[in-house]
Amino acid sequence: KNQVEQSPQSLIILEGKNCTLQCNYTVSPFSNLRWYKQDTGRGPVSLTIMTFSENTKSNGRYTATLDADTKQSSLHITASQLSDSASYICVVSVHAGGTSYGKLTFGQGTILTVHP
Amino acid sequence: DTGVSQDPRHKITKRGQNVTFRCDPISEHNRLYWYRQTLGQGPEFLTYFQNEAQLEKSRLLSDRFSAERPKGSFSTLEIQRTEQGDSAMYLCASSSSGNRYEQYFGPGTRLTVT
Question: Does B4 contact chain A (CB < 8 Å)?
Answer without folding.
Answer: yes
